[in-house]
Amino acid sequence: AKAKSSSNNIAFYDSEFNSTLQRQLDVEQRLRVALENELLKVHLQAKVDLITTETIGYEALLRWNDPVLGPVSPVEFIRVAEEMSLAKEIDRYVLKTVFMSIRRSLDNHKSVLPIAVNITSSHFNDVSLTDYILALSDELQVPLNYLDLEVTEGVLLEMNQNVENNLRSLRAEQVKVSIDDFGTGYSSLSYIRKLTVDALKIDKSFVDDVGGEVGQHLVSAVIAISNAVHLDVIAEGIETEEQRQILIKLGCRIGQGYLFAKPHYICDVLSLVKEGEIKRNK
Ligand code: C2E
Ligand code: MG
Ligand code: MG
Ligand code: MG
Questions:
Q1: Is 181 close to ligand 1, i.e. is its CB under 6 Å away?
Q2: Is the Cβ–Cβ distance between 199 and 167 less than 8 Å?
Q3: From the CA of 177, how far away is ligand 2's center (Å)?
Q4: Who is most buried in 172, 193, 194, 198, counting CB within 10 A?
C-alpha cells in the first residue's frame, strides 16, 4: 500500500506540473491573440484626495476576459508577458490607448486629469521608452503633463544608465513617476536618496494592517521617508472608512481603493463613445 501511495504522489506531482505548464502555454498563446485583437481592455481607477474624496487623477489597469480562458489576472499575464518579451508591446498598447483617450476627451472639450500607466521593469530599462512616449505625445498633440508612470522597486535594483536617462528626460517633460508597491521589494533605502522620482505608493499590504499598532508605525515610517526626501505619498487599496481616517491622521493625502472606486472601462470613466459605436454611427 505504501509503494502505491508514493507512486500516486508522483503521478499527482506530475499532473500538477503538466497542468502548470499547460496553463503557461495557454496563456502565452492566447495573450498574443488577445493583443492582436485588442481583447485587453484598459480600465481606470480613480486617485482621490483622501480628505475631500475628489478625484485628482487615474491609474490605468488592464483587464482581460478571454473567450477561451475566461478572466485572467494582470498579475499572471504581465508575468507571462515579461517571460515572452511581450511586455514592451503591452505597455505600448496601454500608453497608446491612454493617449488616444485623452485626445478624444480634449476634442470633446472635457477637462482631463492625469492618467498613470504601469510600466514593466524591463521596459523602463529600454532606451526606446522615452522616444516612444515623446512621439505619441507629438503625434496626438497630447501634452505630457497628462501622463504619469508607475514602476516597481525592481527598477531601483537594476538602476543603470538607461533607467536614469528615462527618468531624467521624462520628468523634464512633466511626466511624474511613482514607485509602485513601495516596501514590498528588496531595494536598499539608500537608493531612495539618489532616486529622482515624484512619489511613493504605499502597498496595499501595509494599508490592510494600518488599523493595528505595528501597521500604523510602518505606514508612518514610509510617510516620514517620503517627507524626508520630498516625495508625494499615495496609499493603495483603501477599503474601509477607518483606514481612510487613519491615513489622513498620519499625513497621507492621496489614495486609491475600492472605498472610493473600483477600476472601470476607460470609455465609461471618461464618457467616451466606444470605438465600435463610432463606426456604427458613421
Ligand atoms: P498595481 O499597479 O499595484 O495595481 C494595484 C492593484 O490593486 C490593481 O490590481 C487594483 O485593481 C487593485 N486594487 C486597487 N484598489 C483595491 C482595493 O481597494 N482592494 C483590492 N483588493 N484591490 C485593489 P490589478 O488590476 O489586478 O493589477 C495587479 C498588478 O498587475 C498591478 O499592481 C500591476 O503591477 C500589474 N498591472 C495591471 N495592469 C497593468 C498594465 O496595464 N501594465 C503593466 N505593466 N502592469 C499592469
Ligand atoms: Mg500601479
Ligand atoms: Mg501597487
Ligand atoms: Mg501591486
A1: yes
A2: no
A3: 11
A4: 198
Ligand 4 ion local residues (Cβ < 5 A): 181
For this complex, say whether ipTM is above 0.95: yes
φ, ψ of residue 189 to 5 degrees: the values are -60, -25
Whose CA is closest to atom 23 on ligand 1?
237
The grid coordinates of residue 150 equal 508607475
| CA–centroid distance, residue 180 to ligand 1 (Å) | 10
Ligand 1 mutation pick, 43, 44, 61, 78, max ligand atoms within 8 A of CB: 61
Q: Divide the 282 residues of the chain into consecutive groups of 10 and give the mean pLDDT of each group.
A: 50 72 94 96 98 98 97 97 95 98 96 97 95 98 98 81 94 96 80 84 97 96 92 97 98 98 97 65 40
